[in-house]
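Hello forum,

I keep getting stuck at the same step: I have a sequence, I want structure tokens, and every attempt I make locally crashes halfway through. Rather than fight my setup again tonight, could one of you with a working pipeline run this one for me? It's a single chain of 364 residues.
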Amino acid sequence: MDTGIIPIEIYTALYYNVILAFILITFFHSQLLKIDDKRNKAYIRITGFILFSFVLLYMGLRPISGFFGDMLVYDNYFNMYQNNYEITEKHDVLFHQFMMLCTKFMSAESFFFLCAVIYIAPLWYLSKKWFDKLWFYSFLMLVGSFSFWVYGVNGIRNGIATSLMLMAFTFIDKKIIMSIFIALACCFHSTMLLPAVALGLTFLNNKPKMYMAFWLITIPASLVLGGFWESMFAGLGFADDRVSNLTSGNVEGDNFSSTGFRWDFIVYSFSGVYTGWYFIVKQKFEDVLYSRLLNVFLFTNGIWILVIRANFSNRFAYLSWFMLGIIIIYPFLKLRNIKHINIIISFVLLLYYMFTYFMNFIKS
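Reply #2:
Ran it on my machine without issues. Output:
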């Protein structure tokens, strides 16, 4: 795939428009065929392969450019390690060791492609494992998520860490393997300690109603005591010295770091909260894994709400947002006896992606 033919200025915009095309084609296709129709299964199989190939190749073979934010920073590290510089970073050391190892037998271009594989493949794997032949809908939901592209091309090690954490969920019944993936995720990016702690809490209490109550309480708590929570988390040094950015200026010029009580992001997060409430409380959907996923989301998202006014609070938000696509689509793909489920799923995909498209393409 020769990425040189695509002007760097439109590289990101083209991604969002291609995903929009997949969403729209799937939407109109779903109006015509039932979910178990053989023609729909063929569509899922073929289109799913095309989608996976596109996302992996387009992201993995992108040009090395500062246009993608921190990509040049990673490239500089790679060149340093290639020239036998020692690791001096005190945080996320495993990622730097991984990068140093890669310098021994691959180019920087190959390294970034490998990072894309590690970031994207787990999303395909969990979609296949949890939803079998309907995996395409889940995968499309995930790669169309608000922050998916950004954390694949800019916050690379954070993105990889979230995918490793999702892999841990796929081995929830195999505690040793699950623990290994959690440890890898936390060592690649220490902020994964928050969802790891949340996951641990679900083994003590996995009742969604309690976590929903916690999430609701965080909104007035943030409105009344916002500054207190920001100072507390910054003072604790929750992940590392980067947390101090919660109370400092926008030192890195993050595109989504505007401050204030972001009701638009609250509504975005509420889509997952409402989905969980509707299926678990109203429809009595009983699924231990889904309850665990939802509870981790509710806890980590609630922590973000407490510091929502701060610069870089979106970094906290991503500690829950990386799960949002799964939180929403999971019950729809499990409860296939819902009338007109194919049409409903297509509307869910379209509405969910509209937020991504508006925020990242139209508004930007």
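Residues 237-257 have pLDDT under 50 and may be disordered. If your local run keeps crashing, start a new thread with the error log.
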